[in-house]
Every structure is written in structure tokens, then in C-alpha cells.
């Protein structure tokens, strides 16, 4: 069963509430059986916003009913002019997407005050779900890949790949959302490939399971770049113009 941890940090002085979904417990063993896991995964409905992984839907429902809803309602009452940062690694990245879609589509928070950044993100759901992620977050949504990490290529898709997700084109198979960045050397601009097409194979080149660990600091400065990239997104938002 999928198990994740949710971290919240409240940086009121910077007008940010950060919501980070960590990866599954025992992630160090994940690359040993990741292919088998994804091969067994299935899609189930996610309210009115396409379909997502069955295990992710179960995890989302548990998080949503565990007090998280009440916490965010309280936050809106006190700090409705803050920016919400949804982020995550691996499956946590998918839960971040799901939460962002629900917050925006249910009108909990305005889209101009929400952004998403995910690392080592697999395909989280159907093309319809990816469409709602893009619709909800616009240009404030990014996926970051490291070298030849194979996880972003999974689960395999039968959809016609190319271009941003379209509603109704491939409702029963997996598809990515968002602009993606693939790094081969952290903090070196010439070593990053940018793909506005979420399924562009120029950014989905992974075949080396060991590269999955690059996000977690097993390569020099790995954790630093997670923070660096997220801070770059913070700087894109104009806090002074936020209002309830």
C-alpha cells in the first residue's frame, strides 16, 4: 500500500504556505521493483477530473479526511492572500497535483495564488486528469527530471503522445501534465532541457534506475537544487498584488 508523509510549512513573511508530499516509505528499495508496481497499477475516477492511480486515490481520500481539510479552511479564513505551494517527489508529486486540482476546481483558492513543482514524477493519471492539472495551474506547474531517471516514463501509456493534454482524447490511459525540465548537471543552465510538451521524448530519456536517487542528495548538491528550483518559482509570483 502506498504510504506518504505530508509536510506543511507556513512562511507568512514571504506570503507562502508550502504543502509538500513526500514519497513512499522505503523509497530506497523502490527502484528494485518499480516496473512491477506500475504494471499492476490501474486507473480509477478522481471526482469529475479524469482518472488517477488507484493507490493514489486511496491515499488522497485518507489525507483529505484526516484533518487536512479543516486545516486549510482555517488557513483561508486567516491568510487568504497567501500563495499555496504544492510540491512533491515521486508519488508525492502526484498527490500534490491532485490536491492542487481540487483546491482550484472547488474554488478553495484562486489559480493565480497556487503553483506546483514535482520531482521524479510518474504519470499520475489519465489524459483527462492531466488536462485538469494544466487547466487549473496554467503556467505555474513544472516537473523536474534528473538525468536518465526512468520513473517519469511510467506507467506506460497507450495515448497518442504529443502536445498538451486534451480533454476526451484518451480518457482511459496515462498522460503527463505540465512543462518539464530534465537536468544533467544541477545549476548549469546549458545542462537543462526544457520541454513545454509534457510528453516530449527529449525530456523523457530515462533508462538508469540509479538516477532516481539524484533528487535525494546522493549526487552532489542534489537536495540543494530541489530547494533552488522551488525558490525560483516563488520569485515568479507577485506577492504584493495578492488579495482575497
UniProtKB/TrEMBL annotation:
It comes from the Eukaryota. Residues 27-157 form the Fungal lipase-type domain. GO terms for biological process: lipid metabolic process. InterPro entries: AB_hydrolase_fold, Fungal_lipase-type. SUPFAM superfamilies: alpha/beta-Hydrolases. PANTHER family: FUNGAL LIPASE-LIKE DOMAIN-CONTAINING PROTEIN, PROTEIN CBG11750-RELATED. This is Fungal lipase-type domain-containing protein.
